């Protein structure tokens, strides 16, 4: 490492804080089947914000089991590799992670991030963007992409399930919003705190890494109820609850991983664009059949309340299945993952690929949406879901997405435009940064 051991001893780690995660979708909505002791319910979503983390040392990084905040930014970076030998790339990764760990430690405690390397001597010590603001429950979470371990010459230390996601038949991916060597997930209850943290991390990267893409998201405040996504659906009904066996089995790395990855996880990121003009013109009954839940209450169409278990075999008054076999919840239930997603709404984006908007009407006999073309007046509107799933093994997501790509009714309203997967290292020990185990002496 470029820093001495004494320098590393001054760097605190970034680790998990206690909390709950009550938002995110099954892939878009709450589709898993949670028992009362195993899901994070509405009361968890209303947990008051705390001004700073309860602690900075532990087994896991923050931003996973932590209560989900209202604002987020996801920023992917690529290491500088042009004309550099493997050893230099590895050194640069260590230097960047040391800087980021230091900055994250300071910001999460509400302290200034410190100087920007290479800045003019007369430049301000900081941007001043967050002066007078408390940390607003800020968490920073970092991950490593599949290519990193080849780039630094440590294939043997690559987490066992870290590999690029396969192509799915419904993907319409934009390269500008996909992939990445490194990810920084920045979450807080104040969007200005999020922006400040992003600028602070980005300021440490020149010469070591470059920004590849960034996406910003938000969640509403629902007074104790499960938040809703931009489809109007309750989102996160059946997430596993931190501290339970269900959570641990879904999220944290299992046996068979490199020893250094104990306490780690995997993050699957997908940018999912919603055709909201088309959705808004669909009949209420059709919307419910697409998802398999009632929009107003979040209850499954098989009956009960929001947290009632889904019954796929139950018949409706017409003798047909109450929840169609191709409804969203029917295809993704029982897939173990923690969904920590955010809404996004970028309004009209002239550079994006237009969506051909087809407004439709429902055939009352079969409940399917039959469409007719009505123009492209909303074709550049970019809004949807920043889908984030923390999983023990990305194969859980891959299984779910293959099923969805094959027959999900929701496919008529969504387009997957961004995709990435990262290994999320465990929390580091005092005096070490998050990638210290990947140093030549790690």
From TrEMBL:
<keyword id="KW-0575">Peroxidase</keyword>
<feature type="domain" description="Dyp-type peroxidase N-terminal">
    <location>
        <begin position="61"/>
        <end position="218"/>
    </location>
</feature>
<keyword id="KW-0408">Iron</keyword>
<keyword id="KW-0479">Metal-binding</keyword>
<feature type="region of interest" description="Disordered">
    <location>
        <begin position="37"/>
        <end position="60"/>
    </location>
</feature>
<keyword id="KW-0732">Signal</keyword>
<keyword id="KW-0560">Oxidoreductase</keyword>
<feature type="domain" description="Dyp-type peroxidase C-terminal">
    <location>
        <begin position="226"/>
        <end position="428"/>
    </location>
</feature>
<comment type="similarity">
    <text>Belongs to the DyP-type peroxidase family.</text>
</comment>
<keyword id="KW-0349">Heme</keyword>
<protein>
    <submittedName>
        <fullName>Dyp-type peroxidase</fullName>
    </submittedName>
</protein>
<feature type="compositionally biased region" description="Low complexity">
    <location>
        <begin position="37"/>
        <end position="55"/>
    </location>
</feature>
<dbReference type="InterPro" id="IPR048328">
    <property type="entry name" value="Dyp_perox_C"/>
</dbReference>
<dbReference type="Pfam" id="PF04261">
    <property type="entry name" value="Dyp_perox_N"/>
</dbReference>
<dbReference type="InterPro" id="IPR048327">
    <property type="entry name" value="Dyp_perox_N"/>
</dbReference>
<feature type="region of interest" description="Disordered">
    <location>
        <begin position="224"/>
        <end position="244"/>
    </location>
</feature>
<dbReference type="Pfam" id="PF20628">
    <property type="entry name" value="Dyp_perox_C"/>
</dbReference>
<dbReference type="InterPro" id="IPR006311">
    <property type="entry name" value="TAT_signal"/>
</dbReference>
<dbReference type="GO" id="GO:0004601">
    <property type="term" value="F:peroxidase activity"/>
</dbReference>
<dbReference type="InterPro" id="IPR006314">
    <property type="entry name" value="Dyp_peroxidase"/>
</dbReference>
<dbReference type="InterPro" id="IPR011008">
    <property type="entry name" value="Dimeric_a/b-barrel"/>
</dbReference>
């Amino acid at each position: 490492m470029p820093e001495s051991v004494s320098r590393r001893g001054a760097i605190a780690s970034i680790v998990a804080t206690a909390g709950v995660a009550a938002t995110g979708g099954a892939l878009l909505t709450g589709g898993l089947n949670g028992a009362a002791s195993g899901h994070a319910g509405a009361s968890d979503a209303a947990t008051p914000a705390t001004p700073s983390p309860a602690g900075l040392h532990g087994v896991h990084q923050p931003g996973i089991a932590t209560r989900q905040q209202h604002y987020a930014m996801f920023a992917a970076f690529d290491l500088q590799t042009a004309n550099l030998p493997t050893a230099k790339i590895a050194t640069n990764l260590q230097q960047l992670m040391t800087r980021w760990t230091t900055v994250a430690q300071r910001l999460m405690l509400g302290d200034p991030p410190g100087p920007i390397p290479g800045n003019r001597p007369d430049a301000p010590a900081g941007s001043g963007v967050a002066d007078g603001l408390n940390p607003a429950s800020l968490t920073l979470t970092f991950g490593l992409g599949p290519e990193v371990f080849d780039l630094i010459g440590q294939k043997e230390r690559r987490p066992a399930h870290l590999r690029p996601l396969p192509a799915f038949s419904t993907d319409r991916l934009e390269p500008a919003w996909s992939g990445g060597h490194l990810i920084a997930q920045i979450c807080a209850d104040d969007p200005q705190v999020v922006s400040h943290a992003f600028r602070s991390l980005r300021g440490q990267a020149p010469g070591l890494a470059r920004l590849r893409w960034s996406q910003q998201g938000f969640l509403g405040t629902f007074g104790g109820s499960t938040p809703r996504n931009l489809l109007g659906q309750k989102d996160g009904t059946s997430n596993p609850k931190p501290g339970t066996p269900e959570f641990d089995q879904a999220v944290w790395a299992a046996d068979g991983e490199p020893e250094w990855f104990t306490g780690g996880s995997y993050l699957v990121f997908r940018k999912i664009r919603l055709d909201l003009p088309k959705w808004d013109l669909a009949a209420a009954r059709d919307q419910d059949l697409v998802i398999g839940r009632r929009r107003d209450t979040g209850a499954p169409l098989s009956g009960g309340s929001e947290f009632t278990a889904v019954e796929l075999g139950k018949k409706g008054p017409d003798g047909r299945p109450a929840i169609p076999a191709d409804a969203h919840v029917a295809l993704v239930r029982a897939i173990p993952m923690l969904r920590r997603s955010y809404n996004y709404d970028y309004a009209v984006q002239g550079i994006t690929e237009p969506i051909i908007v087809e407004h439709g009407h429902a055939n009352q006999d079969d409940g399917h949406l039959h469409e007719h073309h009505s123009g492209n007046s909303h074709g550049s509107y970019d809004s949807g879901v920043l889908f984030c799933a923390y999983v023990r093994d990305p194969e859980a997501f891959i299984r779910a997405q293959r099923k969805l790509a094959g027959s999900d009714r929701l496919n008529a309203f969504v387009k997957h435009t961004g995709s990435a997967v990262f290994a999320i290292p465990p929390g580091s020990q005092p005096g070490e940064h998050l990638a210290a185990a990947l140093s030549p002496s790690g």
